[in-house]
Amino acid sequence: MIHSQFGNSYFLLSDPDLSGSPPRRVPPPTDVTRTANHVTFSSRLDPVIVEDIAASGEEFSPKHGEATCKNEKFPPLGLPCLNAGLSDDDLCASAYEILLASLVFSGVEIHTVEDRRKERNSKLLSGLKNRRGKSHQQFQSQGRHSEIIDIIRIQMQISEAMDACIRLRLTQFAARTMCRPIDIPQVSLGLLSGMLKSDFQNEKSYVQWKSRQASVLEEILCFSADLEASERLTIKNSLENIRNSKEWDITMSPSERTEFLSAITQVALKLSSLPGKFSIQSETYYWTADYKLNIRIYEKLLFGVFDVLDEGQLIMESNELLMLIKLTWRTLGITQKMHNVIYGWVLFQQYVGTDEAVLLDYALLELQKVISAENNDGEEHYMDSLTCSRQCNGSERKFSLVQSIFFSISSWCDSKLQDYHLHFSQKPDDFTRMINLVSAVGVLTPGDLGDIKLINLNAMNESATRKLKTYVERSIKSAYSRVASTIDLESKVVRTHPLALLANELRLIARIEFNVFFPALRHWCPESGMIAAKLLHQFYGEKLKPFLGGVSSLSEEVRSVLPAACLLDHDLTQLYISACQVNRRHDHLNHELDHYPIGEVAKPLILEWVIAQNSRLLEWTGRVFDLEGWEPLSSQQKLAASAVEVFRIIEETVDQFFGLNLLMDVTHLQALLSVIFHSLDAYLLKMLNQLVDKNHLYPLAPPLTRYEETVIPIMKKKVLQHKLLEDDVSKKLNELTISKLCIRLNTLKYIQKQIGILEDGIRKSWALIRLPVGQGWAKEGHLETSESSLLTCGEAVDELFVITFHSIRDTATDAISKICDLTGARVVFWDLRDTFLFCLYRGSVEGARLDSVLPHVDTVLNHICGLIDETLRDLVVFSICRASLEGYVWVLLNGGPSRSYSDSDIIIMGDDLNLLKDFFIADGEGLPRSVVGQEAKLAEQILSLYSLQTGTVIQMLMTASEQISTGLDSRNHDKMGLEDAQTLIRIMCHKKDRQASKFLKRHYQLPTSSDYDDTPSEDSDSILKSPVISDLLKRSSSFHWTKGQSSLKSFKKKLQEATSDIRNMAW
């Protein structure tokens, strides 16, 4: 026994440790008298309990979310009140007794405790003998009935002792009475005559039980309109004696008690013999006379299908329980249609109390059975006679049972649908169920006479549609009011502008309306989505208009409010469009929302912001570039940190740009791409400006001399002089080491990769940008024009991307090419000039061959390959290969006084050239053989000229000179050709041949090589003394001529004079 704070005690029917969690049912109020054996089901709706629940704080009620069903009083059914003061506990106990009596008088055996002991023994014997005959099957059926009855007892919380006593007395009563069918007065009289005070555990239980039986008889008999005054007085006196424990149990003898009960029995039999009013089979007088009690008792029986430990769930045996309850129909005047409507009502009440959605589905199923049931005149008239009273607009109205239940359900649904955003935002499926339920029972609408009536929910019914519109309007207004009432306080907490928060909250409301409520409402009210969208748009527009009037820049507040307002406008437009598409038959409603003028306000502000970013980016780019030391970012990332920083700030700007979430057009994109272009272009130009022209690296060509063996040494020789670099060039060159050039190349490759990534990201982000208002959706008449505009816009966008990023790519590619050329030139003509240019073949070919130079080149290549990006390696190696072959040609043509080549030397030099080519081919692992061969072609051709006889070379020189003199030489003079005069004179100068020396002395007055001391000097310029060739040799590379100089004209003139002399004399 458990003692509660109310002083009540409860019997434990099972081990509490094994029974799981306790019931979540609310405890009974203190003003209700309860027995130890009974539980009331209707008390869960008591207002006192509702207040207790609300005070506990267990319900969840968010700002525009869910509200529990328990904080509102459930509308009453409107049955006439009971006059005898029967409580819910009394009704529940009487319901169980009537159920057992109905089972007994229907021939279903209800075993007593002694019978169940015998039953267990019989099951044991049956199992041992393994009987499978008809008697065994019947025994199993009876056993199952007994199990279901026990379940009902537990569900209705009847103690086992009381249950055994009632079963025994009802079985005895059925054995001695011949009346069929049984009715409620007979059950009560039978129990009063059979049960003794000794059958109860205490006197209090006995007094309560006896008083309840008297109240039941009083309710049925005393207030019957068909009794005479004397009969009514007899019953009242008899019932007073029954209630008087001293008089009934002590003073009266058994015969006197029997006499009083007999008097009541006579009156009851008289009433039960009266005919029914509607000629329904098995109808009795009590069907209509006491329907208010019958229906209440039947409700208590139906509440037994819910699990006492989890009242939102039906017990597994609910169907079998309902089959047994069906046996009470004849006693309580229940028909199939009545059962369906009462059971649906019970399920609906349980849903309200537990919020278990599946119960709503079950309730709807039962109510739909009522609607679809075939009409039976007698049964319809009978059910219409079961009236209920309701207060409507201050006046009382009478309804039939079905109408009253439908009215109560619709009233409760109406109270929820008035603010469906509050009650169903967190339970979207329940909203659909609720709409289906309202469509079944009808919707409450005002009548013509000021009353309230139920009408079927139909899209063609204007009254029903108007009601649903009212639900939408009121729910949207309530949701907006809830949000608006707290937005200022929330704004202070999160430090965000109230309009931004309000827009976000209204977007949530719009999304819920669009995804949850509109799909359910559009079948009955297609305009619901349009109404919701217009209302939300209107409410927010009233708040936004003053704010837009004061916007002058993209401040933090503006950047938070405008995107939020823009997104809200977009979402509401989508909701409105969808509603319009569903509602095509209402053409007059198909017009656009009056959009917020966000685009007009935002467009100039966005452009101003982008322009401001341009100066910021250029300043930041210049700053990080000036700080760049061209050291590797890390051992894994061998690139400049400045490039990473530039792209970081660019990506940050792009993110901020698209993070504005505002309506944009091509002008804004053009401005953004322009900012990106100027930033990257500035970076690349700064990098290019740090470079030096590779021509500065080429040494000045030494003076042309003719070969002659020196017999008498000259004490004073002319010294070869070399050019000095300007200070700024020298300073730049000192910073352009091979390592730093490689870092620059890696950085340029990184820029190329990041440009592609940046372009893809911007394209994707731009694709998500919404078109300006008016282009979001076009009417059918302008569809073709809209598609054409979109196509033109897309072409313009593509052109912008092409212009911007292809230009940057071209600049980066050009920079890579220049740095690669500079790298090769620096390796050969600067870093290795002493080893390569000034040592190769110096003095003699045999003593200074190429194999002594290649290890130095190999060392440089290994160093570069360890620094350079894999994708650039071949390009850099190729530049070194080209520069090496250029250097080799320089040695062949500009070797100076210390180099002269005999015919035997040319063979050795050919081998060296092949060695150089093989070095870069690297057995197929280096550069392609065809590429190297193409670069070495000029060197091979020059060697082939050295192999010619001196006379042949002289003849070729004369021919080339004649072409110059006659103006027939159409070749490009910016670059030496293989058979032009420049090349041929140099070959003659380096030939170790007396004939060539004699020719050069006679016709060009060239000095001998022995006149010069060919020792490198770093501090003087080269001064060429030959009057004929001085202008020819003033050039900026080993075999290139400089444009725009007068040396070319001078050289032509001297050649013409020499050619004239050659014609007139022998050489």
TrEMBL record:
Q: Where is the MHD2 domain?
A: 847-957
Superkingdom of origin organism:
Eukaryota
Pfam families, alphabetized:
TPR_PATROL1
User: InterPro entries, alphabetically?
Assistant: Munc13_1, Munc13_dom-2, PATROL1_C, unc-13_homologue
Outline the extent of the MHD1 domain: 559-691
Q: What is this protein called?
A: Protein unc-13 homolog
Where are the residues of the annotated region Disordered? 14-33
